[in-house]
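## retry 2 of 3
previous attempt timed out at serialization; input unchanged, resubmitting
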Amino acid sequence: MLIKELRKITGLSLDYWHLDTGYMLSFNFNKNKEQGVKLVEIGNKVLFEGTV
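## retry succeeded, writing output
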């Protein structure tokens, strides 16, 4: 459910600024975290998600 809402919010934000590409930076303080950059496609929008 959270991912669907996040995708909706991100898509709306990109639409508001008339953009097709965006980025999101996430900080993960868990012990077994997965670091890196992922490419997420939301409809016709592209989001680069960086996790540190």
